[in-house]
Amino acid sequence: MIERKALSPQRIRKISGTFAFVPHHFLRQGFWAGLSHHELLLYFFLVLVSDRQGLSYYSFDKICSMVAITSDEYIHARNCLINKDLIAFDGHLFQVLSLPEKETSEPPTPLSVKEMASKDPATISQLIQRSFDNAAE
What we know:
Strand order of the largest sheet: 1-3-2
Structural class: mainly alpha
Helix content: 40-55%
Number of domains: 2
Radius of gyration: 20 Å
Strand content: 5-15%
Distance between the termini: 63 Å
Largest sheet: 3 strands, antiparallel
């Protein structure tokens, strides 16, 4: 059995004052993998600023400013989180909801090595091909 010992015992986290909590099965049951970058930013921001009931009154412009996303990115992320049953929103008040039984959308499947070479826009072969295509134009 592995002995667990804090690396910095004087800095062990404690919940005091405000309340922020994400259950471990958020990661293990596919919720993390099922969210885009902006959805994750908005979700964790709302978790951090909400009270014990998950309620937050932060305004649209304050959220966009603090999270550094555009209004379109905010609206899209908010709507996706609502559709995935992770938050509720009444136009003024957010509520971070308890996690549903299962993640509501399929997490993205990783590309195989063969698919990566032809489909991933960041691979070297794709970058080279694009540079040849641009040079030909």
